[in-house]
Amino acid sequence: MNIEKYTFDSIPDAERTAEETVTEFVIVYNRWAKECHNLIVDDREKLNELTPQGSVARETLKEIYKKYCTSKNRQYHRTGTGYFFYGGTYKGGTAIESCTELYKNEVMIQTEKIKNFSPAKRYLVVKQGQVWKIDGVESLSGNGVWEFDIL
Question: How would DSSP label each residue in 99-131?
Fold first, then answer.
């Protein structure tokens, strides 16, 4: 596993828009998660190789986060827990519903809900230097309230 395997069609960092950052992150993350899932389906013992700190899978995920997300303590996110599947951006939609500028270098991007599959997501994306990075994500709950979610 290496990050190039998942980012082969990536737009160069400084040329990527905020919307493209969200879309690429979801696509790249799901490529990685699908491969991890398939490895475990083929051989359940692979789970013990993929989840420990320092494993190839966890290090690749850290590189994905480094490329698309701001640097901050995400100890309860996937890079800290090793939990690869379900929830968060796993199988999340990439269709952009809206992009709202909050400040000069900060936007909120909302993706569409995938009916019976994935809730709408709202990504906070900030510009660091010339590069847009995801700072956080929320999911729209069934009762219409935005709630913190994991990337």
Answer: EEEEETTEEEEEEPPBTTTB--EEEEEEEETTE
Q: What's the whole-model pTM score?
A: 0.86
Q: Note down pLDDT in tens along the chain; length 151 residues.
A: 778 888 888 999 999 999 999 999 999 988 888 888 888 788 888 777 777 778 888 888 889 889 999 987 656 555 545 555 554 466 677 889 999 999 999 999 999 887 766 788 899 999 999 999 999 989 888 888 998 887 7
- In angstroms, the CA 89 to CA 146 distance is 15
- What secondary structure letter does DSSP report for 114? B
Residue 39: what residue type? L
Single-letter amino acid, residue 58:
R
- Between vectors from CA 113 to CA 112 and to CA 118, what angle results, nearest 5°? 130
| CA-based end-to-end distance of the chain | 20
